[in-house]
Amino acid sequence: MMYFTYLLLQIKKSYKYFISIVLGTMIFIGLIGVLFVYASQSLYAGESVSLVKIGVAMDEDDKIGNMALDMVQTLDSVKTYCELKQYHSLDEGLAVLESGEIGALLYLPDGYYDKIISGKDTPMTIYIGETGGSTIELFRILTDAGSLVLESAQVAFRVSNEYCDSVPGVTNEQRDNIEIEIDKMNLLKFFARSRLFDDSMVSATGSRTIADYYINACFVLLLCFFGIPSAALFLPEAGKLGDKLSAAGLSHEKQALAEITARCLLFLSILVLMVGVYLGYCSMTDTPFIMDGIGAALGVFLSVLCVTCMIYAIYQWFSQPLTGVMAVFLLTIAMAYCSGFFLPTIFLPDIFAQISNFLPTTAMMNGMAGMFGLSVGGKECITLLIFCIVFYFLAVLGKKRHVA
Fold first, then answer.
1. Of 195, 209, 257, 363, which has the highest C-beta tally within 10 A?
2. DSSP for 33-51?
3. Does residue 11 register a pLDDT over 70?
4. CATH label, 51-131, candidates 2.10.110.10, 1.10.3210.10, 3.40.1710.10, 3.40.50.2000
5. Under 8 Å between Cβ of 381 and 295
6. Taking the C-alpha atoms of 374, 377, 379 and 383 in order, what is their torsion angle to the nearest 10 degrees?
């Protein structure tokens, strides 16, 4: 009975902060948004932006190759993003690549274009630098994807041509015409821009659209930032109230459970408002809102519970308001970055991708994915539950530190 009485008191106390938490979070996110906008303008609109520097190693006597390179350099789509530098030998290009002056090197062997014109399959080697950053990593991914598309198209060309050769009773002139038509058909099918970019989605965000991915990340980030304006709710009780309750029969474990439950209900209520805003966005953009059954609902609930337990544990260990707020903010930003909230993990160094598998923010994002039509299975729910239990026991240990 004492536990439920204490739980009701904590729920009442929590909902007194409902308006202030919502307003405080809006103001806080507004300030952070201004900083991000200012940083993006400074980064992308100023002189700090540099083009992707790509080296091309080729024979200086290759007239056709030099003409092709000059033509490519004049294209607006290339000039906007790339700066091509020509080198006359592979060794020279590799030396510059190792020095870090260029991010990637394209090696065109001698007579590359002549061999292509004569019908010989001559590969081009691409060397990627080790310290090129996310832009060069994106270049590597695009070249890998492009090579796969070219390989599939090349196989289709060869199969079609060999099939023509095997058809009996066809003259050489007819066969040549058929091969030309088949090649045209394959070119239109494999390389049509509408087919590559409209019918198929190739995205670093996986099966989610970019909008859904970042809205998902924003939901989790906002839930974590709720812990900043609600610091007064999570800080340890002043005085000896906790000790008195423990002496009266309400253990520190039960106190922590009641306080976490009350804060979780508060966060769920605020999440309902956030979902309402998202539903309004969906209605204006004709975006379907699909929650995949009970698993999705359970994933959302466990994500909110995990956020609550994490924030509660942080404040129990950092009992001073300023240190607690700074700990919540810095830990949230660090974990969010490693989990790919700002830039998908495919563009981050491998060490961050490995670390992200063990971070609660990654588990929260996977749990909240049920709001965007993705299924949330038992693995995601169990992972979130484990994080909740770990944070709960950490919170209890932190709470007991304040016992006289």
1. 363
2. HHHHHHHHHHHHSSTT---
3. yes
4. 3.40.1710.10
5. yes
6. 70
